[in-house]
């Protein structure tokens, strides 16, 4: 059996600076060893640890879909590890271990509308989800796909080129919004994600909502989803608790009896209602 603490080597193929503040970068990674690639099976929602000798390791949601040739991570520079990662350029090698955790409920979503609600740089695993759902062999299994994605300002939206392509598609309704325009012109909506969700008002009947964003967005989004008729068991959120091992051994990430790394990071709102409100 493979040692779950042992990272596999990954080569950085591409680095994209995502935002005006230049503290969000997307890293496209290739497996150094073909056999590691063959063994890497995941679904959107899962995460992996990236590591750099001397700088440690940290968990990140996988931002690419399984069919994509490179494994993508979008990382905000906040501290020791993320600063070390931001300093690396294409050609450098990092370690990766995973995939860990569960994924979004793709089976439950079949035959239903999918409503994706996201704010800020938490969009990563939902970007992977959209890319996965839009594959022709998957797209036919789902109803309407609506994605509402917001950021503080237009310059803070991730994956700008891809969003432009997605806006042209007839099989995805993409609604982009920003908190404040401060008088600047922008063809999309101005407004906070929960308010935009309320205005777009997708029906909660026969629909699943996937929600990812900062805690304040989550707090204000859930009552809107409830009003729209989404039952707690049809709303899924991804949590980002502090983690050490990622495999349910160290107890660093627990919420009540659940380990976010192993039982999550994706939980239904119905599950979260039964847990202590520590998330
Ligand atoms: C399942 C999961 C998925 C994640 N996905 C992403 C992702 O896709 N992109 C991304 O940029 N980040 C993601 N994170 C958060 C990321 O792991 C942390 O930002 C990272 O560990 C910080 O490491 P550091 O050494 O740079 O920061 P440190 O030097 O350890 O800390 C710097 C600052 O960041 C704060 N911090 C550290 N970890 C966290 C955390 N988990 N949540 C909130 N604040 C934290 C610390 O309190 C401190 O203020 C994810 C976390 C989890 C658990
Ligand atoms: S991170 Fe160790 S138990 Fe979850």
From TrEMBL:
<feature type="binding site">
    <location>
        <position position="253"/>
    </location>
    <ligand>
        <name>[2Fe-2S] cluster</name>
    </ligand>
</feature>
<feature type="binding site">
    <location>
        <position position="250"/>
    </location>
    <ligand>
        <name>[2Fe-2S] cluster</name>
    </ligand>
</feature>
<keyword id="KW-0479">Metal-binding</keyword>
<dbReference type="GO" id="GO:0006221">
    <property type="term" value="P:pyrimidine nucleotide biosynthetic process"/>
</dbReference>
<keyword id="KW-0249">Electron transport</keyword>
<dbReference type="Pfam" id="PF10418">
    <property type="entry name" value="DHODB_Fe-S_bind"/>
</dbReference>
<dbReference type="GO" id="GO:0046872">
    <property type="term" value="F:metal ion binding"/>
</dbReference>
<dbReference type="InterPro" id="IPR017927">
    <property type="entry name" value="FAD-bd_FR_type"/>
</dbReference>
<feature type="binding site">
    <location>
        <position position="245"/>
    </location>
    <ligand>
        <name>[2Fe-2S] cluster</name>
    </ligand>
</feature>
<dbReference type="InterPro" id="IPR001433">
    <property type="entry name" value="OxRdtase_FAD/NAD-bd"/>
</dbReference>
<keyword id="KW-0411">Iron-sulfur</keyword>
<protein>
    <submittedName>
        <fullName>Heterodisulfide reductase subunit F</fullName>
    </submittedName>
</protein>
<keyword id="KW-0285">Flavoprotein</keyword>
<feature type="binding site">
    <location>
        <position position="261"/>
    </location>
    <ligand>
        <name>[2Fe-2S] cluster</name>
    </ligand>
</feature>
<dbReference type="InterPro" id="IPR050353">
    <property type="entry name" value="PyrK_electron_transfer"/>
</dbReference>
<dbReference type="InterPro" id="IPR039261">
    <property type="entry name" value="FNR_nucleotide-bd"/>
</dbReference>
<dbReference type="InterPro" id="IPR012165">
    <property type="entry name" value="Cyt_c3_hydrogenase_gsu"/>
</dbReference>
<feature type="domain" description="FAD-binding FR-type">
    <location>
        <begin position="5"/>
        <end position="106"/>
    </location>
</feature>
<keyword id="KW-0274">FAD</keyword>
<dbReference type="Pfam" id="PF00175">
    <property type="entry name" value="NAD_binding_1"/>
</dbReference>
<dbReference type="InterPro" id="IPR017938">
    <property type="entry name" value="Riboflavin_synthase-like_b-brl"/>
</dbReference>
<keyword id="KW-0001">2Fe-2S</keyword>
<dbReference type="GO" id="GO:0050660">
    <property type="term" value="F:flavin adenine dinucleotide binding"/>
</dbReference>
<dbReference type="InterPro" id="IPR037117">
    <property type="entry name" value="Dihydroorotate_DH_ele_sf"/>
</dbReference>
<keyword id="KW-0408">Iron</keyword>
<keyword id="KW-0813">Transport</keyword>
<dbReference type="InterPro" id="IPR019480">
    <property type="entry name" value="Dihydroorotate_DH_Fe-S-bd"/>
</dbReference>
<dbReference type="GO" id="GO:0051537">
    <property type="term" value="F:2 iron, 2 sulfur cluster binding"/>
</dbReference>
<dbReference type="GO" id="GO:0016491">
    <property type="term" value="F:oxidoreductase activity"/>
</dbReference>
């Amino acid at each position: 059996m493979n040692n779950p603490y042992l990272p596999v080597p990954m080569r950085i193929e591409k680095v994209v600076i995502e935002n005006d503040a230049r503290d969000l970068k997307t890293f496209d990674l290739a497996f150094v060893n073909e056999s590691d690639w063959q063994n890497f099976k995941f679904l959107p929602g899962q995460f992996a640890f990236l590591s750099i000798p001397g700088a440690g390791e940290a968990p990140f949601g996988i931002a690419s879909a399984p069919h994509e040739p490179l494994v993508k991570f979008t990382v905000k520079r906040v501290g020791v590890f993320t600063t070390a990662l931001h300093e690396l350029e294409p050609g450098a090698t990092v370690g990766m271990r995973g995939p860990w955790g569960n994924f979004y409920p793709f089976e439950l979503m079949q035959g239903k509308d999918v409503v994706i609600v996201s704010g800020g740089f938490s969009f990563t695993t939902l970007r992977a989800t959209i890319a996965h759902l839009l594959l022709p062999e998957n797209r036919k299994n789902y109803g309407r796909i609506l994605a509402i994605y917001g950021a503080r300002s237009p310059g803070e939206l991730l994956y700008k080129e891809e969003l432009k392509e997605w806006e042209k598609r007839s099989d995805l309704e993409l609604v982009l919004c920003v908190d404040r325009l401060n008088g600047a012109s922008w063809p999309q909506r101005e407004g906070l994600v929960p308010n935009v969700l309320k205005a777009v008002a997708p029906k909660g009947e026969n629909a699943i909502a996937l929600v990812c964003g900062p805690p304040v967005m989550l707090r204000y989004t859930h009552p809107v989803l409830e009003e729209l008729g989404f039952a707690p068991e049809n709303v899924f959120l991804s949590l980002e608790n502090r983690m050490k091992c990622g495999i349910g051994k160290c107890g660093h990430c627990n919420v009540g009896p659940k380990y976010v790394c192993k039982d999550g990071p994706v939980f239904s709102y119905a599950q979260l209602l039964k847990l202590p409100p520590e998330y």
